[in-house]
């Protein structure tokens, strides 16, 4: 039955957000050479897959909201193009990251933050849930798409040992990473060409702030200190916008990747969470010990994410029965209230996560089995921009999640997400007869019918309800009807979350 857990609807059932079959997408992107999947690639009409991307957890101004959403849409489209061409998850997630890195509005690749020396040094990593291999680069300069280097490190490591029995590297940094990339056919890019007008102006502005701060610390210019503090309050976590993506392919394989230019004005040589194993991203296919395949990509203050290994912590949490509750507890207990960050009064970070498994109740197809995907994102920063798309959607959907007014960044968190089913052949159920569903028994009966009839074509169905504040202020995990009654008893406006979000009920 439907459950409302802190405002996020979670269910093993499906409700189509859009009831129109999307047109086929062009297979036009070929920067990344896909690995050969084991399934037959001739049936592209039954393409199956899902991608969730983020353009960072930090601060996304309303004036640039359109640009952030647009780049997330393009990244989703690139990944779906690869999935429709038969590529596996690791290649699709790389394609999404390349698109995010190429945008001048993201802090990754082109347009990254400049360090103290006025140079760009990037971090990136990728993990393949099927092989559990991982590749990463840290503090690398002169490479426009560091995720390509990370992906190449991963693929080279899968080939086995080098000459004389040497172990192939999985993590390279600095000049060594740059030279290795060039020697493996990845073109270099002069650092000065990677800087944009926006990143250069931000560098000059931040450098001026540092000069004012130094004067304040030596006892000069008390008024400048006030201006500096006001500026810090205004900008907050605005420069933490690491980018990332997570993907499920038609075989149920998962992959995750992350890329970042790092903190603005960082010390040269600093390596953030985007390159660290278990901190920037994590992907792990289902196994005898794990009932779900999981993928995670993080963003935020690298030092906070490294000390808590948040990506792996969230992945482990996703093996619990209630995905939303598990993520809530992981963000609260393993991040905001982590003993490793006890000295921090403002813990900044965000994650996108998914878990998937074979949908056992679906009728098996001759070549494709249905896959149930639950996807969520959570952040303690002021905002987080995400985009998502299935291989059978006509276009990507985007959303900028924000903490509600009055919530304090670094001390509150928001969680949103949805569910989707991939694969299988289902008939659409019309909206007639669904109005007036009021009782808990009626809700259960309708959901049971959805399960039996397959009440949505393969695609994406999502529900959004933010949560912020402490766990004590969160509605209890209960049914939609009971939760609505609790709201009414508290004197708040009655709201049927399920019917307001289900297009079949409109």
Describe the structure.
Keywords: Hydrolase, Protease, Zymogen. This is Threonine aspartase 1. The active site is at residue 242. The record marks 241-242 as: Cleavage. Belongs to the Ntn-hydrolase family. By secondary structure, this protein is of the alpha+beta class. It has 3 domains: 48-192 and 236-422, Glutamine Phosphoribosylpyrophosphate, subunit 1, domain 1 (4-Layer Sandwich), CATH 3.60.20.30; 194-235, no CATH class; 440-457 and 475-505, no CATH class. It is built from 13 helices and 17 strands. The protein has helices at residues 65-84, 89-102, 146-157, 174-183, 191-194, 197-217, 222-235, 302-308, 310-317, 323-336, 440-453, 480-489, 497-501; strands spanning 3-5, 8-10, 50-58, 122-128, 134-140, 171-173, 243-248, 254-260, 281-284, 293-300, 349-358, 371-379, 383-390, 397-402, 414-422, 459-463, 478-479. The strands form 3 sheets. An 8-stranded mixed sheet has the order 6-5-4-8-7-3-13-14. A 6-stranded antiparallel sheet has the order 9-10-11-12-15-16. Strand 7 (243-248) and strand 8 (254-260) form a beta hairpin. It is globular. The model is unreliable at 1-44, 224-238 and 425-506 (pLDDT under 50).
What name goes with the CATH superfamily of the largest domain?
(Glycosyl)asparaginase
Helical content class: 25-40%
Strand order of the largest sheet: 6-5-4-8-7-3-13-14
Query: How many domain units?
Result: 3
Instruction: Give me the CATH fold name of the largest domain.
Output: Glutamine Phosphoribosylpyrophosphate, subunit 1, domain 1
Q: How big is the Rg?
A: 23 Å
Global geometry: globular
H/E element order = EEEHHEEHEHHHHEEEEHHHEEEEEHEEHH
Distance between the termini: 20 Å
CATH class of the largest domain: Alpha Beta
CATH architecture descriptor name of the largest domain: 4-Layer Sandwich
Give the tally of β-strands.
Answer: 17
| Helix-and-strand structural type | alpha+beta
């Amino acid at each position: 039955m439907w459950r409302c857990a802190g405002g996020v609807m979670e269910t093993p059932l499906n409700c189509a957000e859009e009831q129109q079959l999307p047109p086929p997408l062009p297979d036009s992107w070929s920067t990344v050479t896909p690995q050969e999947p084991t399934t037959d690639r001739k049936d592209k009409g039954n393409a199956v897959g899902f991608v969730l991307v983020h353009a960072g957890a930090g601060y996304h101004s309303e004036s640039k909201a359109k640009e952030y959403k647009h780049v997330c849409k393009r990244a989703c489209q690139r990944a779906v193009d690869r999935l429709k061409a038969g590529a596996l998850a690791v290649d699709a997630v790389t394609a999404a990251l390349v698109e995010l890195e190429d945008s001048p509005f993201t802090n990754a690749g082109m347009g990254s933050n400049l360090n103290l020396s006025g140079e760009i040094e990037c971090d990136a990593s990728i993990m393949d849930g099927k092989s559990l291999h991982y590749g990463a680069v840290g503090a690398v300069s002169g490479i426009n798409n560091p995720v390509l280097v990370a992906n190449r490190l991963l693929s080279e490591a899968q080939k086995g040992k080098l000459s004389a029995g040497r172990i192939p590297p999985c993590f390279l940094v600095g000049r060594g990473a740059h030279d290795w990339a060039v020697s493996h056919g990845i073109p270099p890019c002069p650092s000065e060409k990677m800087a944009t007008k926006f990143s250069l102006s931000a560098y000059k502005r931040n450098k001026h702030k540092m000069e004012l701060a130094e004067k304040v610390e030596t006892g000069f210019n008390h008024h400048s200190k006030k201006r500096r503090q006001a500026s810090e309050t205004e900008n907050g976590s605005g420069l933490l916008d690491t980018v990332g993506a997570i993907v499920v392919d038609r075989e149920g394989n998962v992959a995750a990747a992350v890329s970042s230019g790092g903190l603005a004005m960082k010390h040269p040589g600093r390596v953030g969470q985007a390159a660290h194993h278990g901190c920037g991203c994590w992907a792990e296919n289902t196994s005898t010990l794990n009932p779900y395949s999981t993928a995670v990509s993080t963003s935020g203050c690298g030092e906070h994410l490294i000390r808590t290994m948040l990506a792996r912590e969230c992945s482990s949490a996703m093996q619990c029965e209630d995905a939303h509750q598990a993520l809530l507890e992981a963000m609260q207990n393993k991040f905001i209230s982590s003993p490793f960050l006890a000295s921090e009064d403002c813990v900044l970070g965000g994650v996108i996560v998914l878990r998937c498994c074979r949908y056992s109740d679906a009728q098996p197809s001759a070549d494709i089995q249905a896959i149930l995907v639950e996807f969520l994102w959570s952040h303690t920063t002021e905002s987080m921009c995400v985009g998502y798309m299935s291989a059978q959607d006509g276009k990507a959907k985007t959303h900028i999640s924000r903490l509600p007014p009055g919530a304090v960044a670094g001390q509150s968190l928001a969680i949103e997400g949805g569910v989707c089913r991939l694969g299988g052949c289902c008939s659409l159920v019309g909206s007639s007869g669904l109005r007036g569903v009021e009782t808990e028994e009626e809700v259960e009966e309708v959901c049971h019918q959805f399960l039996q009839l397959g009440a949505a074509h393969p695609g994406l169905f999502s529900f959004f309800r933010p949560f912020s504040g402490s766990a004590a202020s969160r509605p209890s995990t209960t049914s939609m009807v009971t939760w609505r009654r609790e709201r009414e008893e508290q004197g708040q406006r009655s709201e049927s979350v399920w019917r307001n979000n289900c297009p079949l009920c409109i």
